[in-house]
Every structure is written in C-alpha cells, then in structure tokens.
Specification:
This protein is an alpha/beta fold and 667 residues long. It is 50% helix and 12% strand. It has helices spanning 90-97, 118-124, 140-151, 158-171, 187-199, 241-256, 270-273, 293-302, 313-320, 328-344, 346-355, 371-380, 387-404, 406-424, 436-460, 464-477, 483-513, 518-546, 550-566, 579-582, 589-603, 621-627, 635-661; strands at residues 10-11, 18-19, 37-51, 60-75, 79-83, 104-111, 114-115, 125-128, 229-233, 260-264, 278-283, 286-292. The strands form three sheets. A six-stranded mixed sheet has the order 8-9-10-5-11-12, sandwiched between helices. Strands 4-3-6-7 form a four-stranded antiparallel sheet, with helices on both faces. It is elongated. The chain crosses the membrane at residues 408-425, 445-465, 498-516, 522-540, 552-574, 635-658. Keywords: ATP-binding, Membrane, Nucleotide-binding, Transmembrane, Transmembrane helix, Transport. It comes from Iphiclides podalirius.
Length: 667
C-alpha cells in the first residue's frame, strides 16, 4: 500500500514511458464552469422483485430498497472508482447518478450544487456499459461511422467526422481492426471500441463554408459536444492485467485533462488500483468509505483493519465488505460496523459539507449570461439529427448486417425454393385434365403455397425484437435515435424480401405444377402471396415485440396458427360449419390467402371431367369454390382484410416497442 506523500513512478502502458502520475495532477480544482462538481444527496433506489409461486397465479411484486440514502461528491480532474463485492450496489449507484436507471428513486442529484435533470445529465455525459451491446455483424469502422452520424452535431462536416473517428481509433489502438467484425474482437478491443464511441462526443464539429446561420453567428465552441463526465461500468472486467491497465491509464489521462471519470470496478490489480484518484466503497447498498486511497488506508487502519504489506489493497477492502458464506452473521456485523463508523467519521462529515444545500436546476437557465449559463447552454444547443437521418442510418445498418450475413439469406432463399419444388412436383400434370379425384389434390397445393409462405415469413422476423431489445433499450436511453425511425427502418427493410421471394416462389410452383390461368392468374397469385408474406412479417414482429421470450410467443402463436389453418377451408367445409365457430375464419390470414388464390385458380377452370362412377360430379371451377365454402366475390375483400391485419399488427407492435424502449436498460 502506498504511503501518503510517497511518489511512486508508474509505467504508462500507452506510451511505454515511466512517469510520475502525481507530477501531472491538476492542483487547485475549484467549482468553476470548466470544473464540474457532481454530487448526490440521500439517494435511494427501489427495485421491484418478482414473486410467482405458480403459473396459474398472477405475479406479486415486492419493492426492495437497493441503495439506502447514500451521499457523495466528485469533481472534474478525478478518476473515481466505485468498489464493493457483488450485489453491493456499484452498478446501481453508477446508473442512478448517470440517470440511466429508470427505477423508483428518491434523493437529489446535483451539478455544481444545483439540481440536474436526466436530460442535462444525458447531454453532458457518456456511458460505457460493462457489456457492449451492438450489432456484432458490423465492422469497427462501420460501427464508428454509424455512431458518429447519430451522436455528433448534425452541422458537423463529413471530413470532420471521418478525421475524428480515425483519430480515436488510432489513439485507442484499434486502427488495425477497422475491418474486423465487432463479434470477432477480443475483450480488450471491444472495450476500447466502446470507449471510442463515447469519445465521439469529443468532436470539433464545423459548419461547411456554404452554411448560413440566420439567427446568430455561432462560435466554434458551441458546435462541440465534449462531455465533461464519463461513466464506465466495470471497464476492466474480462481483461487481463495488461489490457486493464491500458484502459484505466487512458481513463486517467482523460481525467487529468479535466474530465470527471467515474468507474465501477471489481477488485482491480494493485497497479491499476493506484491509478484512481478517489474510491467509493459500497456494501449492502450503503457507503462504507468515500475519499482518496490514502484516506481509505487511514480510515480502515483506525478500525484495526490495516492492509497487510504486499497485499492488494483493493482486494482487501472488498473482502472486508463481502459476506462470507460460513460466517454470514459475523460478516454482516462487520459491514454494519464499518458503514456506521464511516458515517461518524471526519471523512463523511467533509463529504456532507461539500455536498451542501440543494438549489433549483432553473438557476442554470435564468436568462442571465454568467459563465455557468454559457457553459451549460453549449450542451443544450447541440443540434441532433432528425428522424429522417436516423431512419436513413438505421436502414444503412440493417443493409450492412445483411450484406455481412449474405450466406444465411442465400441459404434461406434456397430452402424456400427447395420447399416450393418439393410441394409442386407431386402435382405436376394434375391441372391439365382435371377430374373429380384431382380437386382435393389441387386445393391441397393451393393450401400449401399459402401456409409455407406465411410460416416462412413469420419465423424470418420472429426473433428480431427479443434479440435486439437490449440494444434498443441501450441506444434509445442514450438518445441515439427514437423508436419511430427504428421500427420504420425494420418494416421498410423487410418489404423487398417479402416481395421478391414470394414472386420467385410462386413462379416456381406455377411452372412446375402447371397451374391454369396464364399471365393474369400468375400476377394474381404473386399479389396474394406478397400480401400474405407482408402480413406474416407484421404478425411475426407483433409476436416478437409483445412477448419478452420466444418460448412465450410460441405458446401463444402455435394454438392461434392451428385454429387459423383449421379454418382455412381445406380441413373444414366453411359453408356447413357451425356459426358459433365459423367466425374464427375472419381472424385467420390463412383463410384469406387460401380463398383468394382458390378463387383465381378455380375461376379459370371451365370444365372438370366426371370419369369416376359413383362419385358426385362437380363440373366447373365455381362449383368447387362453393364446395369448400368459398365465394368468388370475396377476393378483394380478402385482400383488404390482409392489409388491415398487416396494419393492426404493426401498430400494436410499434406501441409495444415504444413501451419497451422506456424500460431500464441492462447495464
């Protein structure tokens, strides 16, 4: 453990040079506009704990207090570590003071002594989560381009964005990985890319020479979004000591440059622990200590918990504040004593005095032109990109993800064509000289055409939202984009596939099976199958948006699809079905699709031979329609109903996406 006043040179793992970290400290930090003070007072966080004893009973939710009235204060120029054992509340406190946590919360969060709302905190801070959630099929350069386009001021020029991205990739040592997919990166590389995304805020945006500002001439500084606060959730987790030291060293350099960097860490190595300016120790949702590393040594030594020489101080403190399984009561008594002693200590008193009284946030923006107002106004004047730009770049990301996974899409398409070949070959020649035995066979082919189309496109999008909800929550919470352009980008992106593949699928079946009616019937078949494919996309997105788990969605969709196929007209004669159950056909996309292509096919058949004796003779196509309970005049009604079901499913799915986007992201 380093003694107070002793200067130990440390190797800077970024440059390889031996430096004395204390020589470049920023002395005399005061509360001025360029030096923020973030404080929290009597902060408590409540979470809902779910209890469900049976699947037949509604779940009961219990409100659990996970943070117990904690207070603290940190200032710019400091690298702060939030430490504690698992479940101590590190990530909860980090999410609370960064206003990323949407749980029930009481207490005060202040900037320079004034209340700070979630919008202001989000604008002036970056958040690096423990697990970097992103679309893993993008390369590093593509991911950075996407983030830069949506995060930076819309008035920044393309060359400025490109220069900033290249600069960050070079500084963080991932310039050689720009063409590597995110999912192929190592843990350390993913951490550095996540840091680079947050540093994208540090961009000196500039207006092009042809830009005109009508209201006022903007200073270049007003076009910056240089966040003075950076929150990092366990940036060293999963990294070896060298990589962890490199990441924390980079964070320390940022702090020394004037930023406030707050990290939750779990038992850092000795060399890494020494890089932090301050430490906040938590246990069971309470503050066990808040101060410098030297002060921590003094405090625990005063309680007869002196860290042994040569022992990792961070590991020692965390072990003191952890619960031992075989000594649970003793451990909890020790934790309670340490927390209580801290509350009575001079260190806690000093922190409480620095936190001070609470002032209203409106004092930031009271119309006067003092330094504080000018400083905070620069974050409020950031011009975010509009919905059209968000939609464009979300579409761009969708297209790139498919481009990098083209083999999967090609395999799915070949599977579709193979299924079309399998179901059409047995019916080849049956439509040329139809007799009574061919009627059921022909209707079976029409049924298979619709069911295969619908099922394929349902499950093509079935896993979309369950797999992307964590990314959606994280990116919407950070203000990257809104739910509307996100959902529209998905809907529009699915349409080309739901048009091209049904056309090729129908063309194959039409040619191999020898369906009747010529070009106009082929055109009608394509139109109906395209409607069914898009309805299936909407239905699949509805299922994936409404239900959190695919298993639950399957439990609901399987019986619904079973009823839908039962009332499609192939298994049950709809003309003779009981009116108490026959209404179920009207909620079945299978029924609308099968009836529509049956109308197209059987209307084109004028005569059917009666070769088999003793079997009722159906001589025309319209008679076949009546046999199955179909009506020729229902064609356009069916098409309209498919479109209505498509629209309703998308509307409900979009509402659920909005609802889900308001949830608390997983950090």
């Amino acid at each position: 453990m380093k003694e107070s006043g002793l200067k130990l040179p440390t190797r800077n793992v970024l440059t390889g040079a031996v430096v004395n970290w204390e020589d470049d400290e920023m002395a005399g930090l005061g509360d001025n506009p360029e030096n923020l003070t973030l404080s929290w007072k009597d902060l408590s966080v409540y979470r809902k704990k779910k209890h469900q004893t049976s699947i037949w009973r509604s779940a009961v939710y219990e409100e659990v207090k996970v943070l117990h009235g904690v207070s603290g204060v940190v200032s710019s120029g400091n690298l702060v570590a939030l430490m504690g054992s698992s479940g101590a509340g590190k990530t909860t406190l980090l999410a609370a003071i960064s206003r990323r946590d949407k749980s029930a919360m009481t207490g005060y969060l202040m900037l320079n002594g004034r209340l700070a709302g979630a919008d202001l905190i989000a604008r002036i801070s970056g958040f690096v989560p423990q697990e970097d959630l992103s679309i893993g099929d993008l390369t590093v350069s593509e991911h950075m381009e996407f983030m830069a386009r949506l995060m930076m001021d819309k008035r920044s020029s393309a060359p400025a964005r490109a220069r900033r991205v290249q600069q960050l990739l070079g500084e963080l040592g991932v310039v050689n990985c720009t063409r590597t997919k995110l999912k192929a990166l190592s843990g350390g590389e993913r951490k550095r890319v996540a840091l680079a995304v947050q540093f994208t805020h540090d961009c000196a945006s500039s207006l092009s020479s042809s830009s005109v500002v009508t209201s006022t001439v903007l200073d270049i500084k007003e076009l910056l979004n240089d966040p003075p606060i950076l929150f990092c959730d366990e940036p060293t987790t999963g990294l070896d000591s060298s990589a962890a030291s490199a990441v924390v060293s980079r964070l320390r350099r940022l702090a020394i440059g004037g930023k406030l960097v707050i990290c939750s860490v779990h038992q850092p190595a000795s060399g890494v622990f020494e890089l932090f300016h301050q430490v906040v120790l938590l246990a069971n949702g309470r503050i066990a200590f808040h101060g410098t590393i030297e002060q921590a040594d003094q405090f625990f030594a005063s309680l007869n918990y002196k860290c042994p020489v040569g022992f990792n101080a961070a590991e020692y403190y965390v072990s003191l504040l952890g619960v031992e399984v075989d000594k649970e009561m003793e451990s909890r008594d020790r934790i309670r004593r340490i927390c209580n002693e801290y509350q009575r200590s001079e260190f806690a008193t000093a922190i409480e005095n620095r936190v001070g009284d609470v002032k209203d946030e409106i004092e930031y923006f009271n119309g006067t032109s003092d330094e504080k107002n000018v400083y905070f106004e620069r974050y409020l004047t950031l011009v975010k990109v509009n919905y059209f730009v968000q939609f464009y770049w979300l579409m761009w990301r969708n297209i790139l993800a498919v481009k990098h996974n083209s083999t999967i899409w090609i395999a799915e398409f070949l599977l579709l064509m193979f299924v079309g070949l399998i179901i059409s070959v047995p019916y080849a020649g049956h439509f040329k000289d139809l007799d009574q035995r061919d009627i059921q066979n022909a209707e079976g082919l029409l049924y298979l055409t619709i069911t295969e189309t619908i099922f394929l496109f349902i499950y093509a999008v079935f896993i979309t939202f369950p797999s992307e909800v964590p990314v959606l929550l994280r990116e919407t919470a950070s203000g990257l984009y809104a739910p509307l352009p996100y959902y529209l980008s998905k809907v529009i992106f699915w349409i080309p596939r739901a048009v091209i593949e049904p056309i090729l699928f129908v063309s194959l079946i039409f040619c191999v099976a020898g369906l009747q009616g010529g070009f106009m019937n082929w055109l009608g078949f394509c139109f109906v199958c395209i409607l069914c494919a898009n309805y299936a996309n909407a239905y699949g997105s509805f299922l994936s948006a409404v239900f959190d788990k695919m298993e639950t969605a399957a439990l609901v969709s399987v019986p619904f699809d079973l009823v839908g196929t039962m009332f499609s007209g192939i298994y049950l004669n709809l003309a003779s079905a009981s009116p108490y159950v026959s209404w179920l056909r009207y909620v079945s996309g299978f029924y609308y699709g099968v009836e529509s292509i049956s109308i197209l096919q059987w209307d084109s058949i004028e005569t059917i031979e009666c070769k088999t004796k003793g079997v009722p003779c159906i001589k025309t196509g319209p008679e076949v329609l009546r046999k199955f309970g179909f009506a020729e005049e229902n064609f356009w009604r069916n098409c309209v109903c498919l479109f209505i079901m498509y629209s309703v499913a998308h509307i409900v799915a979009f509402i659920m996406v909005i609802k889900r986007s308001r949830g608390t992201p997983v950090y």
